[in-house]
Amino acid sequence: MKELAQAKMRLADVLDRAQRAELALAMLTDVIAACTLSGRFDEICVVSNDSEVFWHARELGAKPIAEPATLGGGLNEGLTFAQRYLGRRAAARELVILPADVPLARPDDISAVVDALAVSDAPRAVLVRSRDNGTNALALRPPEAVDMHFGRNSADAHRAAALAARIEIVELELERLAYDIDSADDLAALPGLPVGAATRGWIEARAHYATEHQQ
Questions:
Q1: Is the pTM of this model over 0.90?
Q2: Are 28 and 44 in contact (CB under 8 A)?
């Protein structure tokens, strides 16, 4: 997760800095809750360089992984650091990577990704594409099976990397996981979607605030 000062900058025309930070933390809460309730993980971690995100993660029972300052805050650099940190621990056999802005995610969605990875013991990758060809879930066995290629058209890049490494890759179509929040249109659609409890609370609080200031 990015530092909160830079969170959801594509929404800067419709949300101020504080609102964007609150939304980002609400969505992160729902993602952690979905992972926790799935019961499929030995450890849930949040990669960031933001101390408030670390505090929030700890409150939710997740382990913060601090990006080294020397990495410069790049998404792939931070994820690669965490991938190597977790992958080289003796008990680590599998890794699931999720973005912090998929507020529709449910435990069943998370379990579907883990189940697809667990079909065999062979090296394997599982991919869920976002609606714009990004990567909204990437599961790997072993944890360092594929390099990180998050960014524009990352789903194609991750698929190509798996094939180049001769690792079987499975794509899942999971509508809720495919939905992330990047644009004003995405934000406008949120109230009518089955988002998690924390994001629903943010939506309701924002609506209440808007009503009060219209009176």
A1: yes
A2: no
